[in-house]
Amino acid sequence: MMSEAAFEEVSVLSSIYCGEGEFRVVQQSAQDGMLVQINRCSEGDSSQNVSVVFQLHPSYPSCPPDISVSSTGLSRTQCHTIRQRLLDRAATLTPEPMIHQLVEDLQQCVELTKDARGGEAKMADSETVEEWTEVLLLDHIRSRNRYVGLLEHWSQQLQLGGRLLLGQNILIILQGRRRNIKEFCRRLKTAKVDVDSSGKKCKERMMKVLVGAPSCSTFRNGLQGFVVNNYQSSSQLMAVFQELNMIQVYQQVLPSLN
């Protein structure tokens, strides 16, 4: 259950960021905590909107929030860098309500990211720039709303395109930065995303990576957002891959399916 300090902070934030579209509580539950979104315009450029989503876990502020960043005027690599700067900053703060402080630090993080030059910045870009496509096989989805909601939330946080295919086999097609896909897979195996046959929360220990390769030019931008597709037959499954110009990927996946 969220602490009283967290609820008080959210109330104060809603008063501070009271402009149209500046603040909203995206999601709230005793089990998963709270998702708070704050939208800010970059100083000197009102057209450049930066959106930050803070995931406040039930134990917040004893533990820092998870953070995701998106922007109308910054690249995904720049948003990833800003997110990491904010996470690093949160780790240095005392375990007290810190969202307002992090939003105040946001502009400095944006400017530092824009001004980043030299070998260190280039090296960071080279580690995250490679576009990657991966197909995962999941074992089961019993608690559909919770599981699918987490998958969609993670794909948004990590700026990945995703397609969840539900049928005889459960597949996820992911597209984006290779490092971010690795983080998505790590979360799948370490977080309690579903329930087992007895109803207890469980992790996705049986997930398998069926295909992982650089995104070729023919389907590099095939995935937009996170979409769920149901299929009834192998021909319908193949049609999804055809729609995405990924028929060669489907041929690689097929031998691993029942």
Uncertain residue segments: 117-121, 123-128
**Separate helix tally:** 8
**Strand arrangement in the largest pleated sheet:** 10-5-7-6-11
Straight-line N-to-C gap: 42 Å
- Taking Cα atoms only, what radius of gyration do you get, to the nearest Å? 20 Å
Number of strands: 11
Listing every helix as H and every strand as E from the N terminus to the C terminus, the arrangement reads: HEEEEHHHEHEEHEEEEHH
Major sheet summary line: 5 strands, mixed
The mean pLDDT is 83
| Class of secondary structure makeup | alpha+beta
Shape: globular
Strand content: 25-35%
In percent, how helical is the residue content?
25-40%
Please explain how this structure is put together.
Helices cover 40% and strands 29% of the residues. It is of the alpha+beta class and 258 residues long. Strands 10-5-7-6-11 form a five-stranded mixed sheet, sandwiched between helices. A four-stranded antiparallel sheet has the order 1-2-3-4, covered by helices on one side. Strands 8-9 form a two-stranded antiparallel ribbon. The protein is globular.
